[in-house]
Amino acid sequence: MNSETETYRKMAHRVRNFHFGWLLMMFAGTITEICDPSYAPIQLLLTIATALFQILIGQGECPVTLFENFLWEKCDPSKVYKGSFVRHYLKKSFLKINAPPGTTTALLVIVLTVTIWVMIIN
After folding, report:
1. Domains identified in the chain, total number
2. Per the confidence metrics, is the pTM higher than 0.70?
């Protein structure tokens, strides 16, 4: 493997790890805001930013997923995947869950709903 390919591979792994971290932050933030409602405005900002990035930058697809696939295409095209990051890695994980299309959008709506609910009741 040449150094350029290796650089793309490392970058793809970093982007994937960032994506996992972002999802973890979104889910942990939902739990945090239930326990500490003062966190809800931050969670709302993160949720709206996530939705806007998908709509405005990714034209309905997550721009982080698009960037990850771009990097995989450069170093290992067999790792490029169709659909959302959540669907791909749920199926690839030990859980082997074949999540339906729209799973990412549904999760985002749930997080946003919980956030608004927490803000309203507090």
Report:
1. 1
2. yes
